[in-house]
Amino acid sequence: MQIQEITENKKQYLDLLLVGDEQESMIDKYLDTGTMFVLFDENPRAVCVVVQKYPTVLEIKNLAVLPDYQNRGYGSYMLNHVFKMYKDRMNTILVGTGENEKTISFYIKNGFVYSHKIENYFVENYDKPIFENGRQLKDLIYLKLSFQQF
Question: Domains of the chain by range and CATH?
Answer without folding.
Answer: 2-149 (3.40.630.30)
